[in-house]
Amino acid sequence: MSAVLDLFTLIAVTAGVFFFLAGTVGLLRFPDTLTRLHAITKADNLGLGLVVLGLVPQVDGVVTGLKLVVIWLLLMLSAGSVSQLIARLARDSDLRQ
Predict the structure, then answer these.
(1) Would you tell me how many other CB atoms lie within 10 Å of the CB of residue 45?
(2) Coarse DSSP helix, strand, coil percentages of the chain, rounded to the nearest 5 percent
(3) How many folded domains does the chain comprise?
(4) pTM reported for the whole predicted model
(5) How far apart are CA 50 and CA 74, in angstroms?
(6) Does the structure show a pLDDT above 70 at 97?
(7) Which domain holds residue 62?
(8) How high is the pLDDT of residue 95?
(9) DSSP H helical ranges for 30-61
């Protein structure tokens, strides 16, 4: 059973790293602020979710797993709020390039 959990962890964390890299490529290659912001927030949220999903079976107890999930949820809430603030600032000050 441990080998199956290790394989699941490896697959989930690898997929999460792939989404982190895809978001970084979008951040570097997209032409304006709003598309860069969209690429990085979507890919990073999904990437972190997959990394947390892969790490949860490897933790010692339920409390540690819940801590990982709470950290992921807090990051999703803060990333959404911060991206809205950045997008509003870019729109209002015409910093779209």
Answers:
(1) 18
(2) 90, 0, 10
(3) 1
(4) 0.83
(5) 15
(6) no
(7) 2-96
(8) 62
(9) 33-55
